[in-house]
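User: Can you predict the 3D structure for this chain?
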Amino acid sequence: MIALPEEVSSAWENREGPIILSTVNKGGIPNSIYATCVSKYSEDILVVANNYFSKTLENIEAGSKGSILFITNKDRLCE
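Assistant: Here is the predicted structure, written as structure tokens:
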């Protein structure tokens, strides 16, 4: 696995609110979910709790890559 870039790792430590996790199915149809139970396990592994996200799990098991969007507190990033 590839480690998170330092800028992303630092931003992750200052995130606020839920993340948005997006995947696509085999037909290219996107599926996005809000997830609140997330953590950085290591510099190359983010953990998202599977809270009955059946479409997301189906997409991942079918080989879809995921994309994560999160918001940071920019004031804390500038300290």
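The chain has one domain: 6-77. The chain has three helices and five strands.
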